[in-house]
């Protein structure tokens, strides 16, 4: 096969995908999401459909190539696809009591002890099990989804244009209430802050499983939401938000960490972004005791909780 690397292209569609916050349908969690196609994310996780239905970012890749006869014979053993890495540079949820003496809790899911020290600020393979377009759950490692590329014949009878696409919708779910065992009270969600970064590489993987990076893009999302409570009902609003996508770059990223993961991706699900972050969320139950209690301090140790945070 001959791949014309300089013809590689990646295009991104994020129209309508503004960082936002909603309350889950069961009223138990806040969901940080992107505005486009977010409705199904507010139900139970098991009910979330395939990534095309929930797409908030669509990425397309294309490149020209000439296949030889062996490529056509063993087509199912080669791949043009996407390998993505991701990390959380900030993921902090703050809870406070309805009264100053009810204390406060901060959960930092991007730092120890919830996240192992070796994983802090490190990119992880963003892959694992994903639903294909008919809803079937499939292990698609190391790629972002189980879709297959298409080859379209160009004017030159031997030249093929390869195309593939992927969809994503980063989101996180935070309980609205959390027990404060130190203050012996229930604390209520006051602030949720999450900063997510990803690098998506358009790659070719040969029959020998050698990965070649054709192009890549970097993108990141910032959510900062604050919450108010009125007679036990929570509402949230965005305080700060951003969704930026850098220009496409050809070839490798020149970042040894990122290139190393893309070219030699881990084999185990336990080393993926979703697995590591899900474990951090599950670990919350082990670290439920808050690391500060604020007693009678009205300012809640500098949290500057507004007077209308809680309305009885």
Quick overview:
The protein is mostly beta strands.
Q: What would your notes on this structure say?
A:
It is a single chain. This protein is mainly beta and 312 residues long. The chain has one domain. Helix content is 7%, strand content 46%. The protein is built from 3 helices and 18 strands. The chain has helices at 69-73, 256-263, 273-282, and strands spanning 2-13, 19-23, 29-34, 57-66, 79-96, 104-108, 124-125, 129-131, 137-139, 150-153, 159-168, 172-175, 177-180, 185-205, 211-230, 233-245, 249-250, 310-311. Strands 5, 6, 7, 13, 14, 15, 16, 17 and 18 form a 9-stranded mixed sheet that branches. A hairpin with a 7-residue loop joins strand 5 (79-96) and strand 6 (104-108). Residues 289-299 have low confidence and may be disordered.
């Amino acid at each position: 096969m001959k791949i014309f690397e300089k013809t590689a292209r990646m295009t991104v569609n994020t129209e309508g995908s503004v960082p936002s916050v909603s309350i889950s349908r069961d009223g138990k969690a806040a969901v940080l999401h992107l505005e486009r196609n977010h409705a199904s994310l507010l139900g139970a996780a098991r009910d979330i459909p395939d990534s095309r239905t929930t797409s908030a970012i669509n990425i397309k890749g294309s490149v020209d190539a000439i296949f030889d006869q062996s490529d056509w014979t063993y087509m199912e053993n080669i791949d043009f696809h996407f390998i993505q890495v991701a990390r959380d540079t900030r993921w902090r949820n703050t809870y406070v009591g309805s009264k100053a003496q009810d204390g406060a809790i901060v959960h930092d899911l991007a730092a120890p002890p919830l996240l192992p020290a070796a994983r802090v600020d490190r990119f992880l393979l963003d892959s694992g099990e994903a639903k294909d377009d008919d809803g079937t759950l499939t292990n698609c490692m190391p790629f972002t989804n189980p879709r297959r590329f298409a080859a379209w014949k160009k004017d030159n009878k031997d030249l093929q244009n390869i195309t593939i696409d992927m969809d994503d919708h980063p989101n996180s779910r935070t309980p609205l209430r959390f027990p404060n065992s130190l203050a012996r009270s229930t604390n209520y969600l006051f602030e949720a802050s999450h900063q997510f970064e990803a690098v998506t590489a358009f790659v070719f993987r040969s029959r020998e499983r050698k990965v070649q990076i054709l192009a890549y893009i970097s993108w990141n999302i910032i959510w900062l939401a604050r919450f108010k409570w009125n007679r036990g009902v929570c509402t949230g609003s965005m305080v700060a938000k951003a969704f930026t996508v850098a220009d496409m770059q050809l070839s490798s990223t020149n970042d040894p960490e990122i290139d190393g993961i893309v070219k030699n991706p881990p084999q185990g699900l336990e080393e993926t972004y979703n697995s590591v972050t899900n474990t951090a969320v599950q670990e919350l139950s082990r670290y439920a005791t808050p690391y500060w209690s604020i007693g009678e301090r009205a300012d809640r140790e500098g949290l500057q909780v507004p007077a209308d945070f809680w309305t009885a």
